[in-house]
Specification:
Blueprint: E1 6-12, E2 15-22, H1 32-43, E3 49-50, H2 59-67, E4 71-72, H3 84-114, H4 125-175, H5 180-193
Parallel strand pairs: 3-4
Antiparallel strand pairs: 1-2
């Protein structure tokens, strides 16, 4: 049980979303079914896995996830597997689930470090909630600006690349020189500046 301001957030494609904000003390275990059902309502299907803190791994939560074909991250209850291959496979899945949690934990850290999520100076509940949601909005706007700046830079580089290739081709045709190495250099530089898909 925790007391004071409690918030629950999720991360989709790098954008944070404040899902729940409460001033009442409650146990997180009760929240898992609601989180999964909200996900199903929003996206139309249940998630493949839920990567959550260990407090969510109650028997009721495990049964609910098993009913819906959802893998709940973390170590399984009971004795460990005797088969070493199965045990290694389960440990690998657990490590991958922990890696999937890194982005949301990083986003929460960014909110505390760069935005006032951990140092609210407001007195009223309403103004505190507004400050928290404004922090999420500003974090998402900053992410949007970074994405757009990266796309703009890549488009500008593509334009310069195309102009240089055309100019070098004309020079090569006029002089009869082989400029294959210069084109390779520009191709490598272009590949290095290509925006990351993830």
């Amino acid at each position: 049980m925790n007391m004071g301001r409690r918030s629950r957030s999720s991360l989709v494609d790098g954008y944070a979303r404040g899902d729940r904000l409460s001033w009442d003390n409650y146990n997180d275990v009760e929240d898992l079914k609601r989180i999964v059902e909200e996900y199903h309502k929003r996206y139309g299907f249940y998630p493949e896995a839920v990567c959550a803190d260990k407090i969510y791994r109650s028997r009721g939560s495990l049964e609910f996830c098993k009913e819906h074909g959802i893998r709940l991250s973390g170590p399984r209850l009971g004795r460990p597997h005797v088969d070493p291959r199965k045990k290694r496979e389960l440990e690998r899945i657990e490590r991958n689930d922990e890696r999937m949690r890194i982005p949301i934990e990083g986003k929460i850290g960014e909110g505390k470090r760069c935005y006032p999520l951990d140092r609210l100076c407001t007195k009223l509940k309403e103004t505190s909630e507004t400050a928290i949601m404004m922090s999420f909005i500003v974090m998402n706007l900053a992410r949007f600006a970074r994405d757009r700046a990266r796309s703009l830079l890549f488009a500008l580089f593509n334009l310069v690349y195309a102009m240089l290739c055309a100019a070098l081709s004309r020079i090569a045709a006029a002089c009869g020189h082989d400029i294959h190495m210069k084109l390779c250099f520009f191709a490598v530089a272009r590949a290095m500046l290509q925006p990351n898909e993830g």
